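Lecture notes, structural biology module. Today: joint structure prediction for complexes of two components.
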Amino acid sequence: MTEKQQKLLYLIKKLELPILEEDAVKRVENLSEEQLNYLIVSYEAVAKAEDNTQEKIKKTNPKLYQKLKNDYHQKVSNINSDYYERLENTLEKSGHIIEKAGLKTHALTKELLHKQEVENHKLDDDHKALYSAISSALVSSTTTGNG
Amino acid sequence: MADTINTPTEVALSAEVSGNKKRRIETRNAVTGQIEDGTNPEGAFLLARLREQLAPQRDTSGNISLHLSSDPTVTELRSSVQEMYQQTAFLDSESPGSENKLMIALKAINKQIGREDYKVRIPEDTPPENRREAIRNQMRQDADVAFREATLYLMDDYIDTLVDMQIQREDLVREINKPDASDVSITNVTVNVLSLRVLEEKARLIALRDAQRTEQLLVDLPTRTTDRPTFQGEAFTPLEDISPSEKDLIIDQGIVAYTDNVNAKYGENGVKSFNAIDEQTKKLMITRMLEAERRIAHHRELLTKAVAAEDPNNVYGQVIDLRQAEEDRLVASSQIEVLLAGNRRRESFSKVRESWGSLQDAILDNITTSGGAEVKQVAENVARSMREVVRSHVHSAKAVIDQAITPSIQKIETEGDITRASLARVIDQVDQVVADLVGNEVAVTGVGLDQVLENFRVTTARNRALAEKEGLQAEIDRRNKLHSAKIGFYKALPVGKANIAAAFKHSVASLIGDTSENEATRQKARAAHEATEKKLTDDIREIDQKLRRQLGDNPDFTYLLEFVEGEVILVSVSGEEKELRKKTATAEDYGGPGHKWKAVQMIGETEEEKKEREAGTQPVETTGEEELPTAVDRTVSIREPEEAAALPTDEITSPDEDAPENTPQARLNRALLINSTMGSTASSRSPKLGYDQKDFNEFNNLGSDFDALVEAYNKEADLKEKARLLAVIERRVNKRKGLFDNLFPET
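The predicted structure, tokenised, for the full assembly:
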């Protein structure tokens, strides 16, 4: 990412433009040099206008400014906290489901391996039983014949 | 007595509580250290404010210039701290009773900040003659400690929150570093990282509140510096994307390592079973497992980065990718176990056949040599026994075995075909059937495992997509709310709100355009932009009218026009040439009341602009038939007003033509500099300009139109056309500057 692109992203962040970070990055990366120049100049002008406005009211009416700024901070904090809470609920719910699915995967895997083992044991028993039957029959016949 | 005996659980609990307490104290010390050494600028700022509140500096006349807080806690502590330092000073001057007063002040501070009753502590082996001095020295030191603790006491909530954050950070790191990746809890990790953000918000608000306890008007808290790196996730490189030789080496090493594991787990027989897997399958299985293990390592690394960045979305994404890789590994390794189990069973069948087969061989030898009725009898016995066994003892594959061996048994029974070969055929059939059944079981289990993994994948993908969608919506809502809050803040400010809101909305609209995936956002942006655009259009029209009046006000461009005009030579029909003027042009020379303008479409001008201009609302350029417009008021320049005002009048009206800065090229360069600084502005009449992508592009191409214009100027041989182009350039530059001045005034 070029210096200009980074600068524009910084300005977008500074101005709190309502655009998702990944969208902003995608958008900025596709801008031509000319578009970049234009947006940087525009946003710098906006940022400067914001700063100037704040500076002016801070000097002329500091108490009002402080009050408005505090309210703004509180509002921003509440918005962020609400967002994190909402995200937490969403991700926690989803995480639980995936973890549950993971546990199920482990259990089913274990069950399948166990089932294979059991089936193999049965086959082993069958195999032995048949061999045993043949051997017994042969031994018994031999004994009878000899007797 | 029983009451005093702790149960193991109580002991463990007590140890845990004690351990937690110790950990908290250590963390608190570290957090406090960062505040005091300035590593945490926000905390350092707060500490400095509170320190000066408790021990305000006095100037040489003994006055305090600082605004002192009237917060009761601060006031009380300040009073005790001041008393304490006053008495410490008296202590130095050997003032009688100062130790007692200092003691009282120290006790008061300790009480106010909720510490245990203050006692002065001196070494027990202090000689009596030095005792008083030792006490004084200790109290001096304790005074500094008390001051430090008093300021930190005022920051208690803030420090506590930072301690919570630090502990949570450490827990998070511990969680993601669990040896078995499948033990890393998705919910714990995700919730913890989000809690960190919530705590951060809390700390910031507390800092703001505490800073304002000083009742000083704060510009703002210092920006919180964080050593959080930005999350950067490199893409995973699958084995198939690496060089074949490297890939083969990794797989071969994987096979060796797995053989060792099998040996440790199942011994030599296990290794034999493992080696019995055909090479291609073995490589395939080991590659699958190695790939999963490489993914685990990759996502663990990325998860560590995401946690260090405290980035909730990436933490969530990586912890899920890690879990997916872990499940892949589990199933891949289980697939090998399935093959091993099958092979072990086949080995077992071989052994049975080996040991029992030799016995059967011996008997058969005996029988077949005796011949006659005996053979028939044996055949019947064997057939009956096998039928019996199949009927009563075979469990899992009765039908299959029955079906496989019945024809051979029937042959023995009916035909008395009891030979080594016929019995061996039956035994082979038995072996074949069970071997097939084992193979079948391997396949069924293998398919089952893949199905289980696929189910997990689907569940994960679905829930992840849902969560990400909801998370994205939450993020969009948050951005919009933050944006509204900011607009609300500026609107509430009693100055500049219209311009700020207009400029801000315009910027937003031009940026978002059609790129936002959210229709509501797009509509909102469109509406905001169109409203802004209308205002801009009106503003621009007004500016243009002003500009028309001020055309030629700019001494740089006027000079250029004059320069060009000074170079004009008129050529008559007869071919006679004469110099038009040598003198500097005046306003009267270039136009006057009642002058008729003929509209031409200018470079970069839209049809709409042209029509507007034709209607007489725009300044125009000449075609050569008319005379050039020029200044009507030369007191306004493109210089900053203050700068212009500071200049002597003659500098504005009569520039020194020989000065380097006044050469035509220097003036043109300055004009171009304005263009490059200002770029293209929203000066078009298009109502969608800056929003619609097409118009946006056209709009941004104005800069290149400008360049084309300058290029045309440089190439143009016709001086009158050159003059016309200069007028267009001037108009462009002034328009841009005028627009910016109007949009973003220096308030």
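Point to remember: The mean pLDDT of chain B is 71.
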